[in-house]
Amino acid sequence: MKGLAITSFILGIIGFLFSFIFGLGILPSILAVVFGIIPLIKKIHKAMAISGLILGLLGIFISLSFFTQEPEDIIRQTLKEIPQEKKARPSKTEINLGEGIRIEGLLIIFDSVKITKTYNTGRSAILTGKPIIKKAKPNYKFVVIKVKGKNVGKEKEGLWLWSTEEQDYKIEVDKGYFYGPIIEKSILNINLMPEETGEDELVFEILKSTKPVKLHALIKGQRFTVNLK
C-alpha cells in the first residue's frame, strides 16, 4: 500500500505539471486519483495518498478545461501568459529617404546621405581648439546620414546618448555586406521639448567599391528600413 501512495503522489505531480501543456496530464492524473483512493480506503499512508489524490484531481480539472476550449482560445490564453516584453515584436516598416517615421513623441526623418573621405568628429583638439577631422582608411569611404527630429508630442522626448539598448543601426550595401556605424557616431542624440526641432548624424565606414542601399534601424523597440537609393 505504501507503494501505491508513493505512485499516486508521483503521478499526481506529473499529471498536474503536464496538464498545463494542452491537457497532456489527464492520464497520469486519473491514475493518481485511482492509486490514491486505495490507500485511503485501507486508511494507511493517508498524507501521501491525499496529496496524490488532490494533485490528480487538479490535473484532471485543468486538462479538461483545455479539451472544452476551442483551439483559438487555447492559443490566445497561452499568449496572455507570455510576458509582454517577450511576445511584443518590433513592427517592421519601410520608408524612403526624406520620409518621416513617428517614434513615440518624436518625428524622425532620415534626411540625406553624403559620401565623403573625411568627417568632423564633433570634438576639438585640446591644444589648438580646432575640430578633429577623421580620415577614412585606405580603400574605404564614409557614409554620413543626416537625421532630423521634431517633437510632435506634449512632453519632452529624446533619443538619449547613453541608452544604447534603445538604438541599433546597420547599413546594407549593394554587394550584400552589412556595416555597423563607427563608435563616435553610432547613436543618435536628439532631445527636444514640444515643437522643437534638432538634428544629428550617423556615420558608417564602407569599402569604396560598394554603394549604400538600405539602413536597417531599431529605435525604442520599433524596427524599420530606410531606402537610401
Describe this structure in words.
- The protein is α+β, with helices and mostly antiparallel strands and 229 residues long.
- The chain folds into 2 domains: 2-83; 89-227, Immunoglobulin-like.
- The chain contains 5 helices and 13 strands.
- Strands 1-13-12-8-9 form a 5-stranded mixed beta sheet, with no helix packed on it. A 4-stranded antiparallel beta sheet has the order 2-3-6-11, with no helix packed on it.
- The chain is elongated and about 95 Å long.
- Mean pLDDT is 80; it is low at 69-91.
Q: Would you spell out the secondary-structure blueprint of this structure?
A:
Layout: H1 2-18, H2 26-42, H3 46-67, H4 71-81, H5 84-87, E1 92-96, E2 100-103, E3 106-116, E4 118-124, E5 131-135, E6 140-151, E7 157-159, E8 167-173, E9 178-179, E10 190-192, E11 197-207, E12 212-219, E13 222-227
Helix pairs in contact: 1-2, 1-3, 2-3
Overall CATH class of the largest domain: Mainly Beta
| Proportion of strand residues | 35-45%
**Taking strands numbered 1, 2, ... along the chain, how are they ordered across the largest sheet?**
1-13-12-8-9
Q: What composes the largest sheet?
A: 5 strands, mixed
Helix-strand pattern, N to C? HHHHHEEEEEEEEEEEEE
How much helicity do the residues have? 25-40%
Unreliable stretches, pLDDT < 50, 5 or more residues?
69-91
CATH architecture of the largest domain: Sandwich
Mean pLDDT: 80
Terminal residue distance: 79 Å
Tertiary shape? elongated
CATH topology of the largest domain: Immunoglobulin-like
Number of domain modules: 2
Q: How many helical stretches?
A: 5
Given helix and strand content, the structural type is: alpha+beta
Number of strands: 13
Q: Over the alpha carbons, how many angstroms does the gyration radius reach?
A: 31 Å
